[in-house]
Prior knowledge:
Blueprint: E1 7-11, E2 15-18, H1 23-36, E3 39-42, H2 53-69, E4 78-84, H3 91-100, E5 103-108, H4 124-127, H5 129-138, E6 142-144, H6 158-173, E7 179-181, H7 187-195, E8 200-204, H8 206-210, H9 234-245, E9 251-253, H10 262-265, H11 280-290, H12 297-309, E10 317-326, E11 331-333, E12 336-338, E13 346-351
Parallel strand pairs: 2-3, 3-4, 4-5, 5-6, 6-7, 7-8, 8-9
Antiparallel strand pairs: 1-10, 10-13, 11-12
Helix pairs in contact: 1-2, 3-5
Amino acid sequence: MQSTIDTLTIVRPDDWHLHLRDGAVLNSVVADTARQFGRAIVMPNLRPPVTTIDLAAAYRDRIHSALAQADIEPGSFTPLMTLYLTDNTTAAEVLRAKESGFVHGIKLYPAGATTNSDAGVTDLLGRCAPALEAMQACGMPLLVHGEVTDPAIDLFDREAVFIDRVMIPLRNAFPELKVVFEHLTSSDGVDYVRQAQGPVAATITAHHLLYNRNALFQGGIRPHWYCLPVLKREKHRLALLEAATSGTGRFFLGTDSAPHPKGLKEHACGCAGCYTALHAMELYATAFDSVGKLENLEAFASLNGPAFYGLPVNQGTLTLRRATYQIPAELPMADSTVVPLAAGESLGWTVQQ
Ligand code: NCD
Ligand code: ZN
């Protein structure tokens, strides 16, 4: 199925779902993203979470300092900030966020769903209606971690159950609210986003396009393939790959690159998150090439996201070449290291520097 394309130049892409962390880790990882992407939606799940416009402004300043320290040319990368929705987020804070011009979404983490989500929402429609109302009115997107946290629900079914229990009631109550179903992982999610009425879109990670849940257990338990929502069956991977490569405007790139120190991944209770910022476009190109759809990579990576968020597309381009890319075993990160996804393996595409 591989195409005969050997070089691909696309409009400079954006990452619509990224974890940059803070402090020394931020300093270590930010250049990896800035090298490939013009902008990134920066997740707010710090400790403490980024719940207010003042916290978001301060975090943005720290990101700018980290970019300067990493010698990234000023203006070549723009962090798009987000707020962390809590039971107490007010309509006034939503309006301040909109007016700021630098906050581009508000993130829903169901309480306890994933890394640093303890401050998340306990009852979305019950507690957050004023904030959601304001978001709908001013056009501020809600970015959704779409998994229920009910321990009675099988981990692999949590996205599908979320659609019925949360997404459908939410969108019935707020039909004009812009919603991004983040890191979609199932055919149920794909079907939902395809047929939904109103302004709904989804991000898809490279790892969910390239791997199914077997990757977690191949030859032994492999913590670097563990993320949330967890990798799923092959039929789900195929549905995601079809959606991402179809050119449809509702699906766009979000790496969910989520660095954790090596020692906390290779641990008795290993953290969720895959580090893909280093080689994001190499991974996505490999996925698109696997189904002969490289011609639709630009829409997915560079055009559909800005259209949904109401932003211009980037200036400049990124060029990928069909050439072997060797994924390093690990990279320095703060006082530890981070292991990139598929460390030690090689890919068939390389970003031209
Ligand atoms: C993310 C993290 O580490 O912050 N982890 C992950 O597995 N994706 C949180 C998240 O996006 O769920
Ligand atoms: Zn994430």
